[in-house]
Amino acid sequence: MLDRLDPDTARALLEWQLEMGADCAVDPQPVDRFALPDRMPQPAAPAQTAPIPAPQPVIGADPVAFAERAAAAARDLDALREALSRYPHCDLRKGAQNLVFADGRPGARVMVIGEAPGRDEDREGRPFVGQAGQLLDRMLGAIGLARDHTDAERAVYITNVLPWRPPGNRDPEPAEVAMMLPFLRRHVDLAAPDLLVLMGNHSCQAVLGRKGITRLRGQWTQGLDRPALPMFHPAYLLRRPQAKREAWADLLELSARLGLPPALPSR
Questions:
Q1: For the segment 22-49, what is each residue's pLDDT rounded down to a tens digit?
Q2: Strand 156-160 relative to strand 103-104: parallel, antiparallel, unpaired?
Q3: Whole-angstrom distance between the N-terminal and C-terminal Cα of the chain?
Q4: Enclosing H/E stretch for 158
Q5: What is the pTM for the complete model shown?
Q6: What are the C-alpha distances in Å from 17 to residues 6, 20, 22, 24?
Q7: Strands annotated E in 8-52
Q8: Cα 196 to Cα 198: distance, rounded to the nearest angstrom
Q9: Alpha carbon distance 4, 6 (integer Å)
Q10: What's the CA gap between 196 and 206, in Å, rounded?
């Protein structure tokens, strides 16, 4: 049946599977499970040979240490992006379409740190461009901020903890976050914002070492040597519209910290 599908129908079926999160093959080739024998043959006994010595650790192979050296060597944002693109130890890069580095204006007073790219971000190579990104733009616009604002006082710079999309939009794994943290620290140093906005639980875990966004949100703290304000991730607000009242209060707190004139919430 599948070989008789027209191209449009086949494409629609594939896009539906992507929407459901099935964007990774389990096996490189299909396996006919009905053709397998009831009992698999026992493996042959290994030949009696001299014991193989345990492999010695390779100096410099630690992913975090490698990341720290690569990040420290970057003298500007372009060099940091290049260092990330050449980083060999994160397997997420193998399944991603694009490196999602940053968007907005470097040198802006506000730097937003999200969690990881989604499908739209992976496709375009820019953070926060899907539905959650559109909501983020409206939220920032409600207090007079924008990622493309010509005034550095009202501009925003945006990045993520992870620069590559996790398969199926799964949560970042601790090992992945650990190897990306040196790059994130250097990113903040080079972008030089006055303050950070941490969007969601995983950003707070990476930057603050703490989770529990419902308790953390709206309270100023310190992260990466800068004032940091945890907020609900826009994707959470899309699922829980009733939390937008708290998000608006956090935006007003951000506006007050920046010394911006008060604004009315957008409709």
A1: 656 555 455 566 666 666 566 566 556 5
A2: antiparallel
A3: 49
A4: strand 156-160
A5: 0.76
A6: 17, 5, 5, 10
A7: none
A8: 6
A9: 6
A10: 13
